[in-house]
Amino acid sequence: MNDPLIREIQVKSVITKSNLPVCEYSVNPYVGCTHGCQYCYASFMKRFTGHAEPWGTFLDVKIWPEIKNPKKYAGKELFIGSVTDPYLPQEECYERTRALLEQLKGSGAKISIATKSDLILRDLDLIQTFPDARVSWSVNTLDEDFKNGMDSAVSIKRRLAAMETFHRAGIRTTCFVSPIFPGITDVKAIIDRAKGQCNLIWLENLNLRGSYKAVIMEYIQEKRPELLSLYREIYQKGSRIYWELLDAELKAYAAEIGLDYVTNDDSMKRPFHAPPVIVNYFYHEQIKKSARKGGDGHA
């Protein structure tokens, strides 16, 4: 991959009101993302950027005025990284996520951070100052070769090591098994690998839509042709059978290994050292309906 096009942009604020059911504010210190994930759900953001370059090949670095009254966010949920990874390799140089955390330090804001990186280890001490901070890492395979075909983020091994370090430091951690590729992602193996170092295990299915649907279908046809009929059944004919069977299988497996298996996230009410909860987010339509009614969910 060629070096991404990088530019600095001035913004009035980096914190925006959110309609996501998991937070009150979303925070994205960058526009775009250089991980180049083949399945990136956030690629729809390109149409708001003014960029002609393909998604994944550009990055806008946000420069904002220092937050004047951070205590206004006391007790509020801020989700950092809803449409970009806040710990992209460029963060090592630009430090926009670190600047955000420093400006919010002591405010009483509740933060959740989503990443595929271990650069976040740099800010461990700073993140520890926030009440009930949560950090999630996306891990949808233990196969580094498959991972390398899907994104240019750090290895799965490094992600899991960072997760373990944060968990040992007393920060709530999530293993986000997303997206689950039918016939490829070994969900049980990931659960077994991560269950001792996280408080939550989120499960989310591969939901093909937009421009990347053709990309993934082409990948399956070329690399995993034995799965092509399954993918056509799911993503062209709309069958839910695969997910229903996997749901039942994982629910039984969770019971077998002594973990709770639920469809909403009440992990903040559980003691830190309790076994992790497995949360099923397979059913996007039901979740969106729940969110509109004020329920819990994840979009």
In short:
With about 300 residues, the protein is of the alpha/beta class.
What does this structure look like?
The protein has ten helices and twelve strands. The protein is of the alpha/beta class and 299 residues long. The strands form two sheets. The protein has a nine-stranded mixed beta sheet with strand order 2-3-6-7-8-9-10-12-11, with helices on one face. Strands 1-5-4 form a three-stranded mixed beta sheet, with no helix packed on it. The longest helix has 17 residues. It is globular, with a radius of gyration of 19 Å. The protein starts with a strand and ends in a 7-residue tail after the last helix.
| Average pLDDT score | 89
Tally of individual helices: 10
Q: What global shape is seen?
A: globular
The helicity comes to: 25-40%
What oligomeric state is this?
single chain
The amount of beta strand, in percent, is 15-25%
Largest sheet: 9 strands, mixed
Written as H for each helix and E for each strand, in order along the chain, the element string is: EEEEEEHHEHEHHEHEHHHEEH
Model regions low in confidence, pLDDT < 50 over at least 5 residues: 285-299
Strand order of the largest sheet: 2-3-6-7-8-9-10-12-11
Write the layout of secondary structure elements.
Elements: E1 5-10, E2 15-17, E3 25-27, E4 30-31, E5 58-63, E6 77-80, H1 91-94, H2 96-104, E7 110-115, H3 124-127, E8 134-138, H4 144-150, H5 156-168, E9 172-180, H6 187-194, E10 200-205, H7 212-223, H8 228-235, H9 241-257, E11 260-262, E12 277-280, H10 284-292
Parallel strand pairs: 1-5, 3-6, 6-7, 7-8, 8-9, 9-10, 10-12, 11-12
Antiparallel strand pairs: 2-3, 4-5
